[in-house]
Amino acid sequence: MMREMLIMKKSNPLSRNLATVLLIGSIGMTASAQKVPTDPPIVNQISPEKKSEGHQKNYNSSRESIDEKGEQSGPDTTVMQPRKETGADEHLLTVVQVETSDREAFETSSDGKAGTGSFLITRDGDLSHPLDVYYHLSGSAVNGEDYLRLNGAVTIARGQESVQVTVQALEDEEAEGMEEVVLTLADIVCIAIFPPPPSCYQIGKKNTAKLKVFDVERRENLAPKSVLITPKKHHMFQLPSALSISGEAMDPDGWISAFQFSTNSEILYEEAVEYMVTPESGQRQHFHYQWQEPRAGIYEITLAVTDNEGVTTFSRPTKIVIMDHQDLPELTVFSKDMLASETADSVNAKTNTAMFRVRRTGSTDAALEVSYQVSGSAANGIDYKELSGALTIEPGQRWGSVVVNPLRDDIQEERETVILSLLPSAKTYSIGESETARVLIMEQSPGPDTNKFMQDGSIHMRLPWVAGENFLLEVSENLRDWDVLDHGVTSDNALDIIESPTQRKKEKYFRIRKALKAVEED
Question: In sequence order, which residues have a C-beta less than 8 Å from that of residue 278 and are 6 or more positions away?
């Protein structure tokens, strides 16, 4: 009874709320169902930014103690002393941070053994007790598969400011390239007492670090990679006063020390890059340049980057067109007859050719020379009569045609594609949104409901329709906005649609509408 009375005498408002628990960190602070004290939570009175030399003198251990008779007793419940009115914080909550001390680990190193990388976890505050620190692991490398399993906890020993977390790479037979390990410090639950228990800590600004795991130890420098962002490929410009060029690059084992933009193999701009703090390995870096008063012409723009060890790589060239006239005709291409067959259809007496149609806008007073290229799984000059790559739209005509005439052979082949792409011209015409079209070559005409995936990844769809009727074939991506894909008079009991692999990346909807009259080719 005497001991209980003594406890009650030493109690204070804080001890009456012993069960109040706070979650410290990014989760915020929440309290239990017991009565919340009217004073601010004691955690807010503990400043992690002010140190006190008297931290240990004012701290009473919450572990077992010795009573006046020399016997060991249970936990001392009088540890929660009232805050002294000294005008300044006297206790510091330990701050924990993490950084990467060894950025790279290798499944096979130069000595034939698996290599290691490491993180360094540090604390700033009371060092007189050991401190358990908890963390989460993420990244493309898998804990326990790509490196020796780590349990998510580590102890900083008494008197020590830091501890190392070692990532031991595990050798396997898979070629995985570079993988990443990310360590993130975890928040913990602390009891709201003052001074704070030695097991409590809060996380500083450096709460995450990462390292890389490679298949084999690098004996040679890894080359950087670069790509142009703007301008876009095949873009056309009306003689701008300035053209913005941008690109990005990354070096898997270093950083970019210099970059260069060039046009048609001539240097446009180059610069050596200096850093106050060097970027981390694998970090994306961005580069920009304003090309002032470019001249009309066709250009291939390239970004070259050099890493910190002197290795230079070039991006894929981006072809653009800068035009010097604003009244150039615009060209578009369509597949007018999508199917060609080596065997003529005797029932409907139809020809066995396919046809592309090229349309121009603007004046039709003069002839217009158009350049194009053909590609696809069918070979030019082998599977169909050779196409020259040039087309003339005659004076007074809005349209020009390119006919695909298949060559018959004794080889049984799958459906093959012929793709026609318009080539840019800086001075005679521009190219509209429809710059590419495709047709099919088949052994014989297909049935009305024959759908098939082809070798190049394209898909051929046949939609049933009534022969001899005017039609509009339309496409939409949202079932609200519809664009005309094809039109005319059906010569068969179906309409054909050919979608390339790139076109199939977006979900599309097709519909056929009956036209009141044939659409005129103006």
Answer: 255, 308
CA angle 230, 235, 239 (to 5 degrees): 95
Q: Is the peptide bond before 279 cis (omega within 30 degrees of 0)?
A: no
What gap in Å lies between CA 395 and CA 340, rounded to an integer?
Answer: 29
Query: What's the CA dihedral at 283, 271, 222, 281 to 10 degrees?
Result: -20
Q: How far apart are CA 476 and CA 511, in angstroms?
A: 9
pLDDT digits (tens, 9 = 90+) for 50-71: 334 444 333 333 344 444 444 4
Task: List the chain domain ranges.
Answer: 95-188+203-216, 225-323, 330-514
How far is Cα 43 from Cα 14, in angstroms, rounded to an integer? Answer: 12
Estimate to the nearest angstrom the gap between the alpha carbon of 114 and the chain centroid: 30
Q: What is the CATH number of domain 95-188+203-216?
A: 2.60.40.2030
Class of domain 225-323: mainly beta
For residue 291, CA distances in Å to 51, 228, 242, 315 come to 55, 14, 5, 18
Instruction: Give the H or E element holding residue 3.
Output: helix 2-10
**Residues 118 and 162: beta-carbon distance below 8 Å:** no
Rounded to an integer, what distance in angstroms lies between the CA atom of residue 119 and that of residue 141?
Answer: 15
Report how far residue 183's alpha carbon sits from residue 143's, in angstroms, rounded to the nearest whole number: 11
DSSP-based three-state secondary structure for 440: strand
Burial 83-92 (b: 16+ CB within 10 A, else e): beeeeebbbb
Centre a 10 Å sphere on the Cβ of residue 310 and count the other Cβ atoms it contains: 9
* Range name among 60-64, 265-269, 317-321, 382-386 with the lowest pLDDT average: 60-64
User: What tokens does 377 get?
Assistant: 């799984």
For position 196, what pLDDT does the model report? 84
Which tokens sit at 9?
């005498």
Q: What percent of the chain has pLDDT over 90?
A: 29
Common-topology check for domains 95-188+203-216 and 330-514: yes
CATH T-level topology, domain 330-514: Immunoglobulin-like (2.60.40)
CB 329 within 8 A of CB 362: yes
